[in-house]
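Data availability (excerpt). The following record was deposited with the supplementary files.
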Amino acid sequence: MDVEIVVNEKLRRTLTILANLDKAPEMAAAKRQIGAMALQDQRRHFSQAAANPQAAGWPELSDTTVALRKGGPKIYDEADIETKRSQLQALRDTNRMFASLTPGGSGNVLNVLPGAVQIGTAVGYAKTQQEGGQVVFRFGEEEEKRFAKNVSDVKRGKRRPAKGTRHVWKRAGKESPWNEMFFRWRAALRKLAGQVLSVPARRFLRAPTREELGKYAGVVAGVVKRLAGG
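Predicted structure:
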């Protein structure tokens, strides 16, 4: 039994277009459009995860990170650490990584490739944040100044006494106005300086959702329809 398949001219034209689709200038433009859409979707995920890290499965910021991050309320005790932690967004300290997910932004990756489009970030520490890894902890002059700005060396509501009087109060049997947490933490951070520490993974980039893939496919379908004259 023989089966004859009759291909009409319109279908033949469509098949020819599909065979050469990736070479068409319209397809290159479509890939750039898909890349921009995908970056927007990744920025939305990044923003939502940073604002609600628990829902995204991200680990909370460490006490050290909270103490060294710019802004937030003055820290006098552990309760203030928790307050500041609740006000901070993970991976949004400088916004450098988030901004790199904008087309044309510094460190942005949006490449049109054969049969694909590549998006992402070229920020140097992005891979460590995405996958986890190890870094050398820095606590130099700049970090120590930031710590002193963020964490009070005197107790809440107390005036700063003269320098060199920290141990005088204890010997006199009086309550000291100095904040021992400040000195304890500063000593610990100085010891950590130069040591290799682990950074937990916070996946700010994720695979496209089913809905997003459908949206991208719609862009390709539109190109095919226009080229086929449909």
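Summary of structural features: The longest helix spans residues 25-51.
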